[in-house]
Amino acid sequence: MRLSAPIYQLKRRAKLLAREQNIPLYQAQARIAANEGFLAWSLLAAHASKKADFGTLLPQLSNGDMLLIAARPGHGKTRLGLRLLLDAASEGRRSVLFSLEYTEREAMERFCALADPLPEPTPEIIATDDICADYITNYLAGSPEGTVAVIDYLQILDQRRSTPPLSEQVEVLKTFARKTGVIMAAISQIDRSYKPEAASIPSLADLRLPNPIPPRAFSKACFLNAGEVRLQSLI
């Protein structure tokens, strides 16, 4: 099934519809999805990201890695993070999604769109506004080495005044990953100022961050754009 427009344009349509009709964004997204022939927005998004198969990141990661997955909307960064969790679960590893973006139901729909059948045990889904570095490390305490956790997404960790600055939270996650051997991956937005005509793949300088993160906060970074993916070591 071919979409009538790229996913980022459909997202824009949904936002405009929500504003014009004075309805919640999720209802507007559901209408857009229905117009495109999908039962739910999450299924539409999963379909859009299937255009590019980036394979698996898991064999290229080491225990204790801090991985950054970054791209502009609609280029497959969330799919890559979910695929990482599914691959980890398929190997019998503990895998956990900490989502500040999706509800538990929406996340499960996206997992189901990527894998049929789902591996056992399925990735754990934590969807609560309480997610922060301390919440994540407390939840993962006692996890075996090689556990994989994905945070969706990095910028939202910095939105609540009651939590420490993003730089401090990233340091907490980095220290925890090194000590425990948990692989920690954070999905991140790329700033709108990024110009694909100047660089085919974004870089750390293109991250959309309200506050800076410490140098070498991540051990590896995976940048995506227009079907191209680049994994690089940062240390």
From TrEMBL:
GO molecular function, one term: helicase activity
Pfam name, any one: DnaB_C
Family annotation (InterPro entries): DNA_helicase_DnaB-like_C, P-loop_NTPase
Coiled coil segments of this chain: none
Gene3D superfamilies in the cross-refs: P-loop containing nucleotide triphosphate hydrolases
Domain SF4 helicase: 57-113, 148-208
Record's keyword terms, sorted: ATP-binding, Helicase, Hydrolase, Nucleotide-binding
PANTHER family: REPLICATIVE DNA HELICASE (PTHR30153:SF2), REPLICATIVE DNA HELICASE DNAB (PTHR30153)
Name of this chain's protein: DNA helicase
